[in-house]
Design a protein that fits this description.
The complex is a heterodimer. Helices cover about 35% and strands about 20% of the residues of chain A. Chain A is an alpha/beta fold. In chain A, helix 14 runs parallel beside helix 15. Chain B contains nine helices and 17 strands. The chains are: A alpha/beta, B alpha/beta.
C-alpha cells in the first residue's frame, strides 16, 4: 500500500468565525479520518516515537488498535502511560517529541500522533462511562499531592493505581492548575479538563480545592495529619515583569492575570459572570511563547480591534509551537519580531496610552544557543495601545517554599529535586513540574509526576518492610 | 460550602457575617484575609478577617455593599452557604511590644482593626484606638473596639457623633498634645490611610497600613494587586497586606483601585435591572 505523504487534515473553525467565539478551534478527527491517518503508521519495531514520548506511551500499539477499530483497547493502552490523553492530544508539543521521531518524518509528514490520541480520548468521553483501571488493594497509606496541575494529577493517578489514598490540595477553586487558569478554552475546553479530573477522582483520589498549603497547613502539619509522603507540583506561578517604566499603569497585565480572569473567572462572559477584564482597543502582548500566543488570541476574541505580538528575537527563535504562531497570524495578530519594549507610557489618570519599543538585531548566540538580540541605536518608536500583556515567562512562587524552611531551593527559588525521582532535601517530600524545572510543558510535568509516584511507592514499600522487620 | 451562621446589619449597606470554617479559624492571625466566592459566577472577593474564634470554628467578615459582588454577598442570610472561603491569606500583622500603639480604623476598616488591637494588647501594649466614619450610624463595632482599647477616640465627618473631623485629625491632635506612640496601625479607605501616613511622616513615627487593592487569585500568581512600596513593586496578597505607610505609593494604589469602575457600574446596572424585573429571588 502506498503511504500518503501528507497527514489527514483536521477540521478547524475558520479564522473569521473563531475570533468571535471562545469555542475550540481544532475540531478533531472523524472516525474515517482517524482510520485513514492510523493506517499511515509503519508500526516500526523500534518505535522511536515511544522513546521520544516523555511518558513513553506505546504509540504503535495504540495506533494498531485504532486500525482494528478497537478504540477501547487503544485508550486503555494510552492510559497505562498517560491518564490525561484528551488534554495531551490537544496541548502536547508532539512536533518536537513523538512526531519529530516518527520514521515517516524523514521523507513525509509524520503520523499525526497527537490527533489520534485526541481522537480515542474523545471517543471514550463521547461514549460515556470511561473504563476505569482496576485498583490494587489499599496499602493503608495516604499521600498528599500539592497542586492539581498536570504534574499533580499524573502523580495522584499513578499513586492511586499503586494502592494509595491520595488527597490533592489545590489553592484555586477549580482543579487543573494551568490547564484551567492558563490555557484558553479555545485550545483546551474546560469541560475536557473536568472530565479528565473526574477520571482521576474515579480512581479514589480526593481533590480539595481552595486549600493554600503553606497557609492553611504546612507540610509538617500534613505529615502529622497522617500523610506518609508529599508530592509538590505547584507550578511556576509567579508572573514576571520586565522591570521597565510604566508597568504598574492601569491596563498593564501579567499574562497570568489576563488569562486567569478570562479562563478561570470567565471574564469573557462578563457581566453574566462577575469578574471583569479591560477589553483593549489596541493590545500589545509581549513575549514569544505559547502563553503569549494564548494571550494575543484571547485579546482578539475579547474584542480588541488590533493585537500586536512583540518579540525581541525573530520567528525562528520563538519558543511557541509553530502551529500556535500560525493560528495567531491567521486570526490577524500582527507579529512584531526583533522588537523590544523599553517603557510603557500613560496619561495623567494612570492609564496606558502607548508602548515604546526599540528595534533589535540578532548578535552572537547566547548560553541558550539562540542568537542574542541587540538593540539598534536610535530605532525607538511608539505603538499606541491601551492594554499591554506581559507574557515573558513565570518564576517560582515563594508562598509554599517560604513556609517550608527545610526545603532546599536553588538561587532562582525553584525546589532542588533529584532529576530522576524528584526527591527533595526534605524527608518524605518529592517535587516535580515547573516548580523544579522552571516553565516547561504539560507533558514533561506529567512525566515528573509519574516518576515521583514511582519513587514514593518504592519509598513507602521499603519503609513498611523495615517497620515490619522491626516488629518481628 | 461554608455556612453563614449569623448575619447582622451594622449600618445601611454594611453587613457582618459569621461563617463556619473551622480550619481557617484555627489558623487565622491578626491582619490576615480570606477570599470569598459566592457561587459559580462569583468574583473572588478578598475580605479581611475581622474576628475569629478557634473553639467555635468561626470567622467574622464585614462587608460594605459597593458593587455587584458585595451586593450579592449582602443579600445572603443566616443559613445560606458560600461556595468558597479560602484562607487565611497574607502575612499576619507583626505584633510586638512598642509601648503604646494607636489603632486607627475608618468606616468598614474599623472591624479589621479589632483583632490587631487585641493582638497588640495581648503582648502588653497600651492601645489607643481612633475610629471614625462619615456619620454616626457608620461608626460600627464600637463596643468590640472598646473592649480591646485603653483609650477610645471617635470622629465623624459631619460631627454627628464624637469629634467632628477625620481620624487623621484626631491622631494629629493626640501626637501634637505629646502622646507618646510606638506604632500607628491604620485600616480604612486608601485616602484615609494616606492622610494618616502624612500625619505621622514628619515625626518618623512607625506607621503600618493594611492595603486593599484589587486581587484575583490572592496567592501571588497574577500580580493584579501590585503596588509600589519604597520604589519596588510588591504583591499585596503575599508580601502584605501590611506595609510601612511611609513607603507606599498611595497615588498609584488609588489609580489601580479605579481600573474597573466602568465595568463595575455596568455590572451593577444590569444587576439592578434584573432586580427590578423580579428575575432574582
Amino acid at each position: 500500500m502506498k503511504i500518503s505523504p501528507q497527514r489527514v487534515e483536521m477540521a478547524r473553525q475558520e479564522p473569521k468565525v473563531r475570533i468571535k467565539n471562545f469555542n475550540e478551534v481544532a475540531l478533531g478527527y472523524t472516525e474515517e479520518q482517524a482510520q485513514e491517518e492510523a493506517e499511515r503508521c509503519l508500526q516500526c519495531k523500534k518505535a522511536p516515537c515511544t522513546k521520544a514520548c516523555p511518558v513513553e506511551i506505546d504509540i504503535p500499539g495504540f495506533i494498531a488498535r485504532i486500525v482494528n477499530k478497537d478504540y477501547q483497547g487503544a485508550i486503555r493502552q494510552i492510559k497505562e502511560a498517560n491518564l490525561l490523553p484528551a488534554m495531551c492530544g490537544r496541548v502536547c508539543p508532539q512536533e518536537g517529541l513523538c512526531e519529530k521521531a516518527c520514521t515517516l518524518s524523514k521523507k513525509f509528514e509524520p503520523v499525526a500522533i497527537g490527533r489520534l490520541e485526541r481522537f480515542v480520548a474523545d471517543w471514550e468521553f463521547r461514549k460515556g462511562n470511561p473504563e476505569r483501571s482496576t485498583l490494587p488493594p489499599y496499602t493503608g497509606k495516604r499521600v498528599a499531592v500539592i497542586g492539581s496541575g498536570p504534574a499533580g494529577l499524573a502523580c495522584a493517578g499513578d499513586l492511586a493505581r499503586f494502592g494509595y489514598k491520595v488527597t490533592i490540595f489545590e489553592a484555586l477553586h477549580k482543579p487543573g492548575g494551568v490547564l484551567v487558569y492558563g490555557i484558553p478554552e479555545f485550545r483546551l475546553p474546560k469541560a475536557i479538563v473536568e472530565q479528565e479530573v473526574n477520571y482521576i477522582k474515579s480512581l479514589g483520589v480526593e481533590v480539595k480545592t481552595g486549600y493554600v498549603i503553606g497557609k492553611i497547613y504546612t507540610l509538617d502539619e500534613l505529615f502529622s495529619q497522617g500523610y506518609s509522603a508529599i508530592f509538590i507540583g505547584i507550578g511556576a506561578g509567579l508572573p514576571k515583569f520586565m522591570g521597565i517604566t510604566g508597568e504598574n499603569l492601569n491596563g498593564v497585565y501579567s499574562a497570568n492575570e489576563f488569562l486567569t480572569r478570562t479562563n478561570l473567572m470567565k471574564a469573557y462572559l462578563f457581566p453574566e459572570y462577575d469578574t471583569p477584564i479591560k477589553i483593549g482597543r489596541r493590545v500589545a502582548v509581549v513575549g514569544g511563547g505559547n502563553v503569549a500566543m494564548d494571550a494575543s488570541r484571547t485579546a482578539l476574541r475579547l474584542g480588541a480591534a488590533k493585537v500586536f505580538n512583540i518579540y525581541r528575537r525573530s520567528r525562528q527563535e520563538m519558543p511557541a509551537r509553530v502551529e500556535e504562531v500560525q493560528n495567531a497570524q491567521d486570526e490577524g495578530v500582527e507579529l512584531k519580531f526583533l522588537t523590544n519594549p523599553i517603557r510603557i507610557l500613560g496619561n495623567k489618570e494612570g492609564w496606558t496610552t502607548a508602548i515604546e519599543c526599540i528595534r533589535m538585531e540578532l548578535g552572537e548566540p547566547d548560553e541558550s544557543g539562540r542568537c542574542r538580540p541587540v538593540p539598534v541605536k536610535g530605532s525607538e518608536y511608539t505603538i499606541e495601545v491601551d492594554v499591554v500583556v506581559m507574557a515573558i515567562g513565570a518564576g517560582a512562587n515563594p508562598l509554599l517554599p517560604s513556609a517550608t524552611p527545610d526545603l532546599k531551593l536553588n538561587k532562582w527559588g525553584y525546589i532542588v529535586a533529584d532529576e530522576t525521582t524528584g526527591k527533595t532535601s526534605k524527608e518524605g517530600v518529592w517535587a516535580g513540574g515547573d516548580i523544579v524545572s522552571g516553565s516547561a510543558t504539560v507533558i514533561s510535568a506529567m512525566a515528573c509526576g509519574r516518576s515521583s509516584a514511582k519513587a514514593i511507592h518504592q519509598y513507602l514499600m521499603e519503609r513498611s518492610k523495615r517497620s515490619k522487620m522491626r516488629v518481628s | 460550602m461554608y455556612e453563614i451562621l449569623d448575619k447582622k446589619e451594622l449600618a445601611p449597606l454594611v453587613k457582618e457575617f459569621l461563617i463556619s470554617c473551622p480550619e481557617i479559624a484555627r489558623k487565622a492571625q491578626p491582619g490576615q484575609f480570606v477570599v470569598v466566592r459566592i457561587d459559580e459566577r462569583g468574583e473572588r472577593i478578598p475580605l479581611t478577617i475581622a474576628d475569629y474564634n478557634r473553639d467555635k470554628g468561626t470567622i467574622a467578615i464585614v462587608v460594605q455593599e459597593a458593587g455587584k459582588s458585595t451586593y450579592r454577598l449582602g443579600e445572603l442570610n443566616s443559613g445560606d452557604r458560600i461556595l468558597d472561603v479560602i484562607g487565611p491569606l497574607g502575612i499576619p500583622t507583626r505584633v510586638e511590644n512598642r509601648g503604646t500603639v494607636a489603632c486607627v480604623g475608618g468606616g468598614v476598616g474599623i472591624p479589621p482593626v479589632y483583632p490587631v488591637a487585641r493582638g497588640f494588647r495581648q503582648v502588653g501594649n497600651k492601645i489607643v484606638s481612633i475610629i471614625g466614619a462619615r456619620t454616626k450610624e457608620l461608626v460600627i463595632w464600637e463596643e468590640r473596639i472598646t473592649s480591646v482599647s485603653d483609650e477610645l477616640h471617635i470622629t465623624t465627618d459631619d460631627g454627628s457623633y464624637g469629634l467632628k473631623g477625620f481620624v487623621s485629625d484626631e491622631l494629629k491632635r493626640l501626637i501634637g498634645e505629646g502622646k507618646k506612640l510606638g506604632l500607628v496601625f491604620a485600616v480604612g479607605p486608601t485616602l484615609m490611610m494616606r492622610a494618616v501616613s502624612e500625619v505621622t511622616r514628619p515625626y518618623k513615627l512607625r506607621t503600618v497600613v493594611s492595603l486593599n487593592p484589587i486581587m484575583v487569585d490572592a496567592t501571588g500568581m497574577c500580580g493584579a494587586c501590585r503596588v509600589n512600596v519604597g520604589g519596588k513593586t510588591k504583591f499585596v496578597c503575599v508580601d502584605g497586606p501590611d506595609f510601612d505607610a511611609h513607603q507606599v505609593d498611595f497615588d498609584q494604589l488609588l489609580s489601580r483601585q479605579r481600573i474597573y469602575l466602568q465595568e463595575e457600574k455596568k455590572a451593577l446596572q444590569s444587576y439592578d435591572l434584573l432586580h427590578r424585573h423580579g428575575k432574582l429571588k
